[in-house]
Amino acid sequence: MKPPSLILPVTALILAGCWVGVLRRSKAGLEAECDRLQSQIAAMKAPPLASASPLDPAAKHRKAIEWRRIAGHFQNRMQSGALLDMRVAMRFRQRMEAMDAGEIIATLEEVAVLGLPDEARGDLERTLLESLIQKDPELALERFVDRAGSGEHWLGFLLSGALQAWAARDSEAADAWFDRQIAAGNFESKALDGVSNPRQMFESSIISALLASSPEAAARRLAGLPEDQRGNVMHMYFLTTVPEETQVVHAQLVRARVAAEDRAGTIASQASLLFRPGDYSAVTAYLERIDATPDERTACAMKAVQNMNPKIPGSNHLTREDFDSLREWVGIQAPELIETITGKALGEAAQGNRKMSFAAAAELAVDYGASDGAEEALAAFLTSWAASSNKEAARALAEKIADEGRRAEVMEFLK
Question: Domain spans of the chain?
């Protein structure tokens, strides 16, 4: 299997100033320029790079000057926020495509001693390493694994991506290599809590590949981690979004190996990215696909509170229609929680008047209680952060709660 490409396409490199993390323009702004630039990119014929003879004693000096010049272009664009000159980008792409893995390693060594500013050197290293990973992920890992825990997050992410690419091509070799590195102490935790973030990232990357090729090996890897870390690994980094074809295997592994108290939340983390404004069909399909348990459906319903967005395009505020849709969906997935989730969702929406004013949310909470005779929607709403920021109005609303015990709990919260 061909490993997935980890290098951004040249158009994306050009439009984004060639560097991840350097984007200063909005996505919409870049997309607006895309059509104009595409024709220029297609039509442009950048002159080939001059290649120095290996016998030329000044060749190394000229190459160093060229890398300094390229780094200077990048540095200037980073400081100004402008796009990189297309000819410079095309020449750089040509150089990357022409290099083999050994030449990229040699270039990385040259760049390291040029005395470039840290930011410019880091960007050059990052792009060179991306190219190396595409050409030879195993070599990239062998060459840079000692820096995996250096605190350079971009480096850890690229190297863990290299492990994923290698595992997709040769899962046994990648799995064995990672075990050797762990045994050698390259992923030992330096934190007081004993958690090694680099190891969790690498475990996530290789497990994501093994889910498709060897679920048994994925289970073994997860079992090798402390139980209280397994939930994080199964929903972070490379497992934030699991492809549909491995969702069932992922859910089975979570149920078998993740701590009981973390299982439903780990499953629900996958559903949280499937919510669409007023549309719960993708979440429902996911829950049906994995044959979700009642606890998992409840956890997913609670996630809906945090992922509500207006159904009306371009609107920043939720309407009753949005909450009616939520209640209808929760009534199927976790009917016993309709009122609680309604109140929590209204509280989230009214937090800082972000998606709904406090007054409008309060009116809905009262209306829902009046329509079905349940007070929990109002009680849950009045124990939200939004209510604690509007205590006078919230206390007045609490008087509408007939259940004395529940009313007392709400009043205690609103002290």
Answer: 1-47+59-135, 144-187+195-247
Helix axes 137-144, 118-135, angle to 10 degrees: 140
**Closest C-alpha to 379, from 402, 348, 357:** 402
Tell me which residue of 158, 208, 174, 212 sits closest to 6, measured CA to CA. Answer: 158
Token pair recorded at residue 22: 């350097």
- How does residue 314 score in pLDDT terms, banded at 50, 70 and 90? low
In order of 342, 365, 378, 388, the CA distances from 349 in angstroms are: 11, 12, 14, 14
Give CA–CA dist 112/131, Å, rounded. Answer: 17
Structure tokens at 337: 């929680």
Which range, of 18-32, 181-195, 334-348, 349-363, averages the lowest pLDDT? 18-32
**Distance of alpha carbon 381 from alpha carbon 339, whole angstroms:** 10
Q: Residues with Cβ < 8 Å from 126, sequence gap 6 or more?
A: 19, 20, 154, 155, 158
Contact criterion met (CB below 8 Å) for 210 and 168: no
Which contacts (CB < 8 Å, 24+ apart) does range 167-174 have?
A: 167/205, 167/206, 167/209, 167/210, 167/213, 168/1, 168/3, 168/4, 168/209, 168/212, 168/213, 169/1, 169/2, 169/3, 169/137, 171/209, 171/210, 171/213, 171/214, 171/217, 173/138, 174/138, 174/206, 174/209
Neighbouring-strand partners of residue 276: 279
pTM of the model: 0.73
Which phi and psi (to 5°) does residue 6 adopt? -110, 0
Q: Which residues contact 414 (CB under 8 A, 6 or more apart)?
A: 382, 387, 388, 391, 394, 395, 398
Is residue 162 within 8 A of residue 154, CB to CB? The reply is no
Look at residues 10, 20, 128, 107 and name the one whose alpha carbon lies nearest to residue 60: 107
The pLDDT tens digits of the residues spanning 22-47 come to 333 344 444 444 444 344 334 333 34
81: left (phi over 0), alpha (psi -120 to 50) or beta: left
Radius of gyration of the CA atoms of the chain, in A: 27
